[in-house]
Automatic annotation (TrEMBL):
The lineage of its organism: Bacteria, Bacillati, Actinomycetota, Actinomycetes, Mycobacteriales. GO terms for biological process: DNA-templated DNA replication. This is Putative DNA polymerase III, delta' subunit. InterPro entries: DNA_Rep/Repair_Clamp_Loader (IPR050238), P-loop_NTPase (IPR027417).
Amino acid sequence: MELIQPQELTTGVKFARDVVEKAHTLPTSAPWRVVIFEDADRMTESASNVLLKSVEEPPSRTVFMLCAPSTHPRDILPTIVSRCRHVYVPVPSNDDVAALLVAEGGVSEHDAALAAAASVGHIGRARHLAHNIVAQQRRAQVLGLAELIYHGDLAFQEVGVLFTKIEAEVDQRLETIEASEKEKLQTAMGGGMKGKRVASLRSSLNAAEKELEATHKKRRTRQKRDALDLALVDFAGIYRDALITATGAGIGLTHPDMEGLSREIASRHPAEAIVTCIDAIMKTRELFGQNVRPVVALDSMVGRIRLALGVR
């Protein structure tokens, strides 16, 4: 099995060519080679076209599995979709996710149920939330924004703090990984060698290091945007819960531990205003991919929510 996990904001032509090259090697430890391509929706159109030929006529004993949110043209090139068999994987229920967390151990039934609800069926995120104290603190900070909206400029200050903390956490998490990758590159390309070929090796090493640094920068950008996006998904959840309460929809809450806050929002504002708040959050998520500075987008979001709720 070949698991492909893109680390950059978008998957370009070079990455797609590397995937194709790996796919064309014969399986050595099993009868078939299965290439699982996660986040295939992040491929650029050019990268999709590079992959298209291999998907249409895959190498002998090779199977491609492209993972994407949907078969919509914004996620996957229609020409690729037309050459694939669509396998719908349903989102597991909250009860199923909670049961899995309990079965894995180290999580109480209460905490597992809360993590499952807050993660909206995403097993990996539920597992991370259930076991990681930093993730739990970050969620509490994000949900607290809904209360700070009513308190002057505190929400504006808080989104700035949130952005700074997320950036710092990503930088710290990747620092050791990047240092290890750089050391491996230097070792592979003869860093520290002496002799007549040092000059030519140094030139090649410098070029490779610059390419690696560019990759690191793109990976950091993606992880920071992904972390901010997940924070906004949490934030939207509190207004979703308020809307469910206001309309009496009778379905489960995303943040049951914050039911008091969502009920307060529902009691203070009409459903139309709450929907506008959700729209403001979704618009901000879109802005992250449009070269808008995240902190500017977050400030704008807070302003639009305050306006929708009539906060002065």
